Amino acid sequence: MKHRNKQIPFFGVSREFAQHRAEFMNTIESVLATGQVLQGTPITELENIIANITNRSHAVAVNSCTDALYFSLLASDIKPGDEVLVPDFTFAASATCILRLGAKPILVDIDENFGLDLNQAQSLITPKTKAIIFVHLYGQMHDPNTIESFSKQNNLVLVEDAAQSLGAKYENRVAGSMGLTSCISFDPTKTISAPGSGGILTTDDSKIDSLVRSFRYHGKDVGSKTFNRLGYNSQMTTIAAALISQKLNYLKKWENRRIDIAKIYKENLINLSQITLPKYIKESQNIYHKFVLEVEQRDNLFNHLKNSKIGSAIHYDTPLHREPIFDFLNLDDEKFPMSLNKSKKVISLPIHPFLTDSEIEIIIQTIKLFYK
Length: 372
Description:
Elements: H1 13-34, H2 41-53, E1 58-62, H3 65-75, E2 83-87, H4 93-100, E3 104-108, H5 118-124, E4 129-135, H6 144-153, E5 157-161, E6 169-170, E7 173-174, E8 181-185, E9 199-203, H7 206-216, H8 238-247, H9 251-269, E10 275-276, E11 284-285, E12 291-295, H10 298-307, H11 337-343, E13 346-349, H12 357-371
Parallel strand pairs: 2-3, 2-4, 4-5, 5-8
Antiparallel strand pairs: 1-9, 6-7, 6-11, 8-9, 10-12, 12-13
Helix pairs in contact: 1-8, 2-8, 3-4, 3-7, 9-12
């Protein structure tokens, strides 16, 4: 393979900007010209777009998906001492939102498709268990009917962590439509990103909608002059909302490119015995927020790609039960065999829509060379 001076980046944010610079800058200028850099009309416009995409009655834009998760639990009246089921294998924010309330995260192992193991979850339910946070990892939506039935049978508030799955589907259901609330992220690692941080909460419950709107702006109800409860400053900027709305015009186009890239990876890596390709749920339309392999010699492969100027990442090398913030739970490895096994093998390849075909070929050949 010829020596390359050019880096193949894991994320495509800078290339996205280079390709769409003129229209993005026009949007930014138009927002700045109004003077409404907070609480401008693009906020409401984005909320309406997302509510429409997710088939929800309400959508509330906030500063981050992390806040959306926290507000979901807060508006659902989860109290200190209550227990909330959450997967052991996910980004920390899925579980730290529970700690912010003084509630207790009940970490649950995952299944082979990286979804929370409902069988183990059933065995962990106590009279204190009040809610479940179900995470659709890597852009694949899990069966909403099974998850909603589980929640209903156990009288649990269901919060859908759809941070990584905007645009994903399970049969005729879309990510963002499941449970009491759903939480979507627009941070720079996501398929549709804000210039910085950004999140949105969707719901069909008008009371939840009103409470979250109050929480995001210092505890003031919409249309009120008084501060009625303890609130926060969790406002999405007008510029972020306007740019996200603009990027949503490309949602399907960018998604189709990621699907094409995933197909090329799968076709070319299927015969390597040291690699396990992603397992997919048949009824699910995956948006490939991440393309995650399970491999032998993972850390060595990561360094090999790095030395070859190819960006890759690990999502995630530490299950939550091993993170210091959750030490107080005193959990043993033996309760999380799947989570622990996958954490030692997973590696994410670049899959943003701004990769060229020649770069994809270089990535594939570099991996094959490593295992040769």
